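User: Before I run my own analysis I want an independent prediction to cross-check against. Here's the chain; please return only the structure tokens and, at the end, one sentence I can use as a sanity check.
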Amino acid sequence: MAIHLHEGDLPDGLDFGASVAVDSETMGLNPHRDRLCVVQLSAGDGNAHLVRFGKGEYNAPNLKALMANPDVTKIFHYARFDVAVIKKYLGVDTTPIYCTKIASKLVRTYTDRHGLKDLVRELAGVDLNKQQQSSDWGADVISDAQRDYAASDVLYLHAAKEKLDMMLAREGRTELAEAAFRFLPVRAELDLAGFEPMDIFAHS
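Assistant: Structure tokens:
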């Protein structure tokens, strides 16, 4: 495994192929309050690329182009949050999207454990270390432990997607999953507009 740390943007000419796993690290879980600090990416080849942002430094033309590239599927776990925070701070609409948490909820109905740690353990046979989940991602220097943690969040999403795709096809829910993925940018827009705690489809 190789972890590459980039300050402010991806380098020119980096090719992730037809799909890239993406995650983000922020100062908290409120996009309006808690700034984006790191975006991590992997082509599923055992390498991870971490883009670290200083406060207010969100130019990143190469990363923005990748997020908007219609020919590259972006694989997230809980895309709803990441897509919203990327929209908030990078000002780009991410498309197309695949969310392993949504896929998991559609086919792993035999469990209520849909977090990344449980998903990767079952589908990729890897036990993730989540100790750095709550740490200071806005620090001037991120630690080796933080780098390892950030990388682990994207290194196994391709493998999980492969298994989930087979399960979705087996259960006849592929089209339903794809429709849910297409809706995610709208859900993110609703969250950013202040409708995050509300189910606008509910009766009351």
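Sanity check: Residues 174-195 form the longest helix (22 residues).
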